[in-house]
Write a structure and sequence with these properties.
single chain; 330 residues; alpha/beta; Rossmann fold; seven-stranded parallel beta sheet; two-stranded parallel sheet; 13 strands; 16% strand; binds nicotinamide-adenine-dinucleotide; binds 2'deoxy-thymidine-5'-diphospho-alpha-D-glucose
C-alpha cells in the first residue's frame, strides 16, 4: 500500500504517520507538508522510510505527481487554529478550501481513494445542558473562519463523491491532545506557561466545554476508516472526554504541583463556541473502533511529562506565540 499523507508533519498528521509506520510496516508513506510551523519537520525524526516532500497542497503539478504514485490520500493539511483565523482568515481559505479542491480534482483524475480529516466544529456549538451530542446527521452550522472553511471543505468532498463518484470518506473528530501540539493551542500553552514561570490563561469564564481525545486514538480511528469504512460515509471520532476549560486548567495546575486557583482570566475569543460533544457510536458499532486513552488525567499527565522533557521542541515557538496573544490581551 502506498499512502500519501497531506499535513503529515503537523500535530495529528505526524502522530498518524508514526502510528501507521508502527502498525503497518509494509506500507510506503509519503508526506507532503508546507511546514507552516518551522520546526514541524522534527516531528518525523526517526522515520527513515518515510518520504518527506516540502510543498503546498495548492500546487497542482506537485500534488498530481504525488497522488499518481499513491493508492490512498489521507488529507490532514489545514490551517487549524481558530484564533489565527480571527486575526487573518485568508490562509484558511487558500489551504482549507482551494487546497482541498486541488486534492479532490487530483484524486478524481487518477481515481484514487481519499480520506478527508475534518472537525466537530463544523456542527457549531451545543448548549451546556443539551442532552444531544453531534452525530453524522447534525446540520452544519460553523461559527469561525476556521470552522467555516473546514465545513466548506467537507461539502466539497461530499459534492465530489456525489457528482463525480470520488471514492472518499470523511471523519469529524473532537479536540485532540498529546505530544507535538503547537504551543498556541490550549493545553500546550498552559503547560508551557507554567514551565516558564507564568500563570495559565483562561478565556472568559472558562465554562466552555471541549470533548478531549488523545491524538493516538484519532489515528487509530482514521486507520479503521481507511481499512473498513464505506466510501461516501462520514464517521465521527470522539472518546467521551467532555471537560470545561476551567477543569482542564485546574487539572494541569494540580499535576504540575501548583495551586489549582493559580490562573488568570484573559479576554474571551470572539464568537467563542460553548460546547462540543461527539457521539462516536457509528465508528464503534460499525467498524469496531475503541479508544485506548479513556482516562483523561492519565493522558494529560503523560502530555505534561512530554512538554517538560522536550523543551528544545517547543521553546523556539513560545516567545513569538505569546507576543501574538499579548497584543489581543489574551
Ligand atoms: P497542525 O496545524 O498541527 O497541522 C497542520 C499541518 O498542515 C502543518 O504541518 C502545516 O504545515 C500543514 N499545512 C498547512 N497548510 C498547508 C498547505 N497549504 N500545504 C501543505 N501543508 C500545509 O494541525 P492539527 O491539529 O494537526 O490538525 C490536522 C488536521 O486535523 C486539520 O485538518 C484539522 O482541521 C483537523 N482536526 C484537528 C483537531 C485538533 O484538535 N487539533 C481536531 C479535529 C480535526
Ligand atoms: O474541536 C476540534 C478543534 O479543536 C479542531 O478542529 C481545531 O483544529 C483545534 O484547534 C481545536 O479548536 P479549539 O478552538 O477548541 O482549540 P483551542 O486549543 O484553541 O482552545 C480550546 C479551548 O480553550 C477553547 O474553548 C478556547 C480555550 N482557550 C484557548 C487558549 C489558546 C483558553 O481558555 N485559553 C487559551 O490560552
Amino acid at each position: 500500500m502506498n499512502i500519501l499523507v497531506t499535513g503529515g508533519a503537523g500535530f495529528i498528521g505526524s502522530n498518524f504517520v508514526h502510528y501507521v509506520y508502527g502498525q503497518r510496516p509494509d506500507w510506503n508513506i509519503t508526506v507532503i507538508d508546507a511546514l507552516t510551523y518551522d520546526n514541524n519537520k522534527k516531528n518525523l525524526d526517526g522515520l527513515d522510510k518515510v518520504e518527506f516532500i516540502e510543498g503546498n497542497i495548492c500546487d497542482e503539478k506537485l500534488v498530481d505527481k504525488l497522488v499518481q504514485k499513491n493508492d490512498i490520500v489521507v488529507h490532514f493539511a489545514a490551517e487549524s487554529h481558530n484564533d489565527n483565523s480571527l486575526s487573518n482568515p485568508r490562509p484558511f481559505l487558500d489551504t482549507n478550501i482551494v487546497g482541498t479542491y486541488t486534492i479532490l480534482e487530483t484524486v478524481r483524475k487518477h481515481n484514487k481513494r481519499l480520506h478527508h480529516i475534518s472537525t466537530d466544529e463544523v456542527y457549531g456549538d451545543l448548549d451546556l445542558d443539551d442532552p444531544k451530542k453531534f452525530t453524522p446527521e447534525t446540520p452544519y452550522n460553523p461559527s469561525s473562519p476556521y470552522s467555516s472553511t473546514k465545513a466548506g471543505s467537507d461539502l466539497l468532498v461530499r459534492a465530489w463523491v456525489r457528482s463525480f463518484g470520488v471514492k472518499a470518506t470523511i471523519s469529524n473528530c473532537s479536540n485532540n491532545y498529546g505530544p507535538y501540539q503547537h504551543v498556541e493551542k490550549f493545553i500546550p500553552r498552559q503547560i508551557t506557561e507554567i514551565l516558564e514561570g507564568r500563570k495559565p490563561k483562561l478565556y472568559g469564564t472558562g465554562e466552555q466545554v471541549r470533548d478531549w481525545i488523545h491524538a493516538e486514538d484519532h489515528s487509530s480511528g482514521v486507520l479503521a476508516i481507511l481499512e473498513n469504512g464505506l466510501v461516501g460515509e462520514t464517521y465521527l471520532i470522539g472518546a467521551d472526554g467532555e471537560k470545561n476549560n476551567k477543569e482542564v486548567v485546574e487539572l494541569i495546575l494540580k499535576n504540575m504541583g501548583k495551586d489549582q486557583n493559580d490562573y488568570e482570566h484573559v479576554n474571551d475569543r470572539p464568537g467563542h463556541d460553548m460546547r462540543y460533544a461527539i457521539d462516536a457510536s457509528k465508528l464503534m458499532n460499525e467498524l469496531g473502533w475503541k479508544p485506548k486513552y479513556t482516562n483523561f488525567e492519565e493522558g494529560l499527565k503523560q502530555t505534561i511529562e512530554w512538554y517538560t522533557n522536550n523543551e528544545t521542541w517547543w521553546k523556539p515557538q513560545k516567545a513569538e506565540t505569546e507576543a501574538k496573544y499579548k497584543k489581543a490581551n489574551q
